[in-house]
């Protein structure tokens, strides 16, 4: 509990005050719940038939499961490609060659600063005009393009900070036994850095999963689009969005849980996670333009 | 290319993005700070409210909140914020941006508190400062400096995320770009213009926050 910095162990008067504030907090919570339920009730959104579809087979097999599949498909393809992109450009930024370093730096900083949605609009239009993919594949490929470029750049920064976080002796040892710079990077530094950034990588999956909902803007059929369709089919718009939100939250909780487990496991083996790991696991994220706060962002 | 620049009000679209970002930032900072105070308070229920808020909004896609604010809140619940359709959409977009990013601001501010070592509070108390004095003279100055970098990152994310408002029909930079690439040729140039526009909006801000957090860093 972070409160220890601020507060002493409470005395009798402070305990009384805390009890009163607890009551106030409870009142606020109950008040909010009352207002929300009242509003929903007035609009008829609490009626049993609005919620019944969620315990039937049809709502799941025809709407929610295809939605989850769409979201997961886009997220998994993107995170795999982003990991490749991140490793390539992360290594590029660590290269001896000044030209490669500079180009990788520009690419990474550019794609970190440009909103994902703009990249998706652009990619969607580009693919559709030039018939790059089959028509029904265009939205998926545009979503994957946007997510890969942005998250790949974030991961490239993670790779770089991971390698910088290793003890200098690792690199020196590699060079002193006669490996070249490239060999040292590939066979000594990178494997350690990648292992240490594993929790951050899983944390980045939360961002990818959430951002795949941006595909709604370019007609990609993911969970949000499907829950909108479900809302029209059963005339239960608000329950449908709530169900989608709960599903997103559960998926993200699962990912965060796995990330914590991996982090704890690496910690026991004495591998230090990269400095950014902690923030990325929060799923927060926001860095553009060389911010020191680590690569997490709140993309949407 | 010249036609595109003269036929479309690109600067106006970016002005809309700036308006969304500034108002959203103000809302997120206010709400996020209140939540952070709740999360570090010694009162259990306030802490629980703060924690649930952060967990819910940090794990829900912003796009879902945007869409639900119009199709759910406005159409089904009748919570219209203006008789004018465009104004209603704009106000909801600002509220959603604030509500979503408040969760991240809350965590950023809280991480600032966590950078203050317990010894600082103990030292403050042992020289006889009251709770209020140690808070305002010792803890807060250090906590604020510690939270500059993460709050800066969140604000930059908010600027980029303001593009999501285009999904519900706000005519911001992203909405404008979607219209132009649909109607005109020369897509790549258009993309570059808008991408550079966002780089101009975010890069100097990021550098400013980085410089500020370095200069104000508490030496330990």
UniProtKB/TrEMBL annotation, chain A:
Localization per record: Cell membrane
A GO biological-process term: amino acid transport
Keyword annotations from UniProtKB, A to Z: Cell membrane, Membrane, Transmembrane, Transmembrane helix, Transport
GO terms, molecular function: transmembrane transporter activity
Stretches that traverse the bilayer: 20-37, 68-90, 102-128, 238-259
Lipid bilayer topology: Multi-pass membrane protein
Protein name: Putative glutamate transporter permease protein (GluD)
TrEMBL record, chain B:
CDD domains cross-referenced by the UniProt entry: TM_PBP2
InterPro entries: AA_ABC_transptr_permease_3TM, ArtM/GltK/GlnP/TcyL/YhdX-like, MetI-like, MetI-like_sf
GO molecular function: transmembrane transporter activity
Residues annotated as transmembrane: 12-38, 59-77, 89-109, 187-211
Family: Belongs to the binding-protein-dependent transport system permease family. HisMQ subfamily.
Protein's name according to its UniProt entry: Putative Glutamate transport system permease protein gluC
Biological processes, Gene Ontology terms: amino acid transport
Membrane topology according to the record: Multi-pass membrane protein
Subcellular location: Cell membrane
Pfam family, one: BPD_transp_1
Keywords assigned: Amino-acid transport, Cell membrane, Membrane, Transmembrane, Transmembrane helix, Transport
Source superkingdom: Bacteria
GO cellular component terms, semicolon-separated: ATP-binding cassette (ABC) transporter complex
Organism annotation: Nostocoides japonicum T1-X7
Domain named ABC transmembrane type-1: residues: 14-209
């Amino acid at each position: 509990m972070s409160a220890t910095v601020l507060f002493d162990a409470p005395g009798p008067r402070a305990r009384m005050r805390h009890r009163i504030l607890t009551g106030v907090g409870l009142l606020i919570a109950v008040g909010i719940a009352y207002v929300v339920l009242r509003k929903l009730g007035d609009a008829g959104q609490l009626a049993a038939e609005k919620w019944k579809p969620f315990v039937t087979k049809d709502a799941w097999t025809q709407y929610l499961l295809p939605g989850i599949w769409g979201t997961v498909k886009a997220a998994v393809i993107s995170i795999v490609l982003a990991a490749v992109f991140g490793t390539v450009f992360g290594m590029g930024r660590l290269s001896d060659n000044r030209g490669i370093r500079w180009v990788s730096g520009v690419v990474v900083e550019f794609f970190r600063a440009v909103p994902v949605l703009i990249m998706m609009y652009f990619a969607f239009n580009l693919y559709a005009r030039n018939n790059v993919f089959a028509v029904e594949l265009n939205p998926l490929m545009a979503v994957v393009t946007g997510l890969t470029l942005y998250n790949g750049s974030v991961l490239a920064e993670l790779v770089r900070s991971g390698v910088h976080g290793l003890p200098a002796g690792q690199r020196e040892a590699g060079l002193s036994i006669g490996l070249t710079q490239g060999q040292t990077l590939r066979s000594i530094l990178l494997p350690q850095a990648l292992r240490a950034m594993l929790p951050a990588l899983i944390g980045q999956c939360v961002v990818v999963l959430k951002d795949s909902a941006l595909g709604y803007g370019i007609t990609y059929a993911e969970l949000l689009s499907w829950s909108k369709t479900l809302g029209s089919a059963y005339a239960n718009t608000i329950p449908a969005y709530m169900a989608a939100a709960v599903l997103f939250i559960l998926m993200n909780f699962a990912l965060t849980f796995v990330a914590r487990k991996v982090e704890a496991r690496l910690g026991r083996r004495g591998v230090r996670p990269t400095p950014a790991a902690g923030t990325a696991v929060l799923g927060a994220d926001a860095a553009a333009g060389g911010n020191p706060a680590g690569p997490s962002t709140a993309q949407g | 290319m010249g036609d595109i620049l003269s036929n479309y009000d690109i600067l106006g679209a970016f002005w809309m993005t700036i308006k969304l970002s500034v108002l959203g930032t103000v809302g997120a900072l206010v709400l996020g700070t209140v939540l952070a105070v709740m999360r570090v308070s010694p009162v259990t229920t306030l802490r629980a409210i703060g924690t649930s808020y952060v967990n819910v909004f940090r794990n829900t896609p912003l796009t879902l909140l945007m869409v639900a604010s119009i199709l759910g809140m406005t159409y089904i619940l009748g919570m219209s914020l203006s008789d004018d359709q465009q104004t209603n959409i704009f106000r909801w977009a600002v509220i959603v941006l604030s509500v979503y990013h408040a969760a991240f601001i809350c965590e950023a501010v809280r991480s600032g508190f966590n950078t203050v070592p317990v010894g600082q509070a103990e030292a403050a108390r042992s020289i006889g400062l009251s709770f209020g004095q140690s808070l305002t003279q010792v803890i807060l100055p250090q906590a604020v400096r510690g939270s500059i970098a993460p709050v800066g990152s969140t604000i930059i994310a908010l600027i980029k995320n303001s593009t999501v408002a285009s999904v519900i029909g706000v005519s911001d930079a992203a909405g404008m770009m979607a219209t132009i690439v649909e109607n005109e040729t020369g897509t790549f140039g258009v993309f570059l213009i808008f991408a550079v526009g966002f780089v101009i909006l975010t890069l100097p801000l990021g550098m400013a926050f980085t410089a500020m957090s370095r200069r104000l860093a508490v030496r330990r």
